[in-house]
Amino acid sequence: MWSKLFGGGDEIPREKVDAVVRIVDRYLAEEAELRGLQSERQTIHPKDLPPDKRRALIGEVFAVLGETGKS
Q1: pTM for this entry
Q2: How would DSSP label each residue in 1-56?
């Protein structure tokens, strides 16, 4: 899936993938808690985030992906 999103040749280091997953999970968990969602069937999608939080999420993800070296 990453190759479809970011091109085929360069692999993203596993640490960066894990960091992105943690960031997305944190934003979604915070929003779900604010909305009082508790079950697996009550989920939230990144597009459901308010615009300011969505921009912040995107900024953090690109900051991680843009870091140099294999961190």
Answers
A1: 0.72
A2: -HHHHH-SSSPPPHHHHHHHHHHHHHHHHHHHHHHT--STTS---GGGS-HHHHHH
What count of other Cβ atoms lies within 10 Å of the Cβ of residue 44? 17
What are the angstrom distances between the C-alpha of 60 and each of 8, 40, 41, 57, 66?
23, 26, 27, 5, 10
Residue 71 · residue 13 · CB < 8 Å? yes
Under a CB-based contact definition with an 8 Å cutoff, are residues 17 and 2 in contact? yes
Query: How far, rounded to the nearest angstrom, does the alpha carbon of residue 28 sit from its chain's CA centroid?
Result: 9
Quote the percentage of the chain above a pLDDT of 90: 37
